[in-house]
Amino acid sequence: MSVETVNGHILLPHPANWDRQPTVSRQWETEVSDAEFGNESRFGLRSVPRKILEWSITATDLQEQSQLMDRILAAMKSGLACAPHWGRASELAEMVTDDQVEIETSLWPWVEDDYLILIDDDGAFEVGQIASIAGNILTLTAAVDDPHRGPYVWPLIFGTFRIDNYGLLTSRIGAANLSISELTSPDAVTIGTASPEIDGIGGWIIGDTFIVQ
Fold it and tell me: In angstroms, what is the C-alpha Rg of the chain?
């Protein structure tokens, strides 16, 4: 079967198995390279973390097993995948029928250009991208193809794909333990709103009254 992609990432829309609760961790890795004279050169300090989502999927029948297997094999080949950010859903206020998604009060910091996924109780799903936000109304770049009843909408997480020992590659239906590690953080660094006192990106102002005693 053909697999769905979002920005070149293989989409894994299968519901998470909450018997093994999805977990989110963060990493503040820096880049390290060799410098002259055998020293290390560190650069690219990350002020905001990149997230790692780990979760489990259990196929409920042979059809879902086949779909999941095809998507996992494609993700293993490309190395990139995306999935609903399990545990970070926003509740829908009403059925989605056009390009507007109305949500209840949400703790998730939705921003423009975010991708989201709508999943019905029967497993039907649709991916959209946010064009603008006004209060609790998320306006998409295009209307949905079919009405979606919810009850939730999830943001998508993108990154590198990893899978543990996969029992589903055999004829036995079992759990697949997956993870997605962000390559870049979607969060922005808040520097401050005060105007700098000197030209340039930043600097120190040295006083002229420094006295050595």
Answer: 22
User: Cα angle at 188 between 186 and 192, to 5 degrees?
Assistant: 175
| Pairing between β-strand 5-6 and β-strand 115-119 as defined by DSSP bridges | unpaired
pTM of full prediction above 0.85? no
User: Which residues does 176 contact at the CB level (< 8 Å), separation at least 6?
Assistant: 56, 57, 58, 59, 68, 72, 163, 164, 166, 167, 168
Q: What confidence tens digit (pLDDT) does each residue in 132-189 have?
A: 999 999 999 999 999 988 799 999 999 999 998 665 455 566 788 999 999 887 765 5
Place of tokens 């410098």: 35
3-state helix, strand, coil in the chain (%, to 5): 10, 35, 50
202: tokens are 């930043």
Residues 168-194: b if buried by 16+ CB within 10 A, e if exposed: beeeeeebbbbbbbbeebeeeeeeeee
Enumerate the H helices of the chain as residue ranges: 62-78
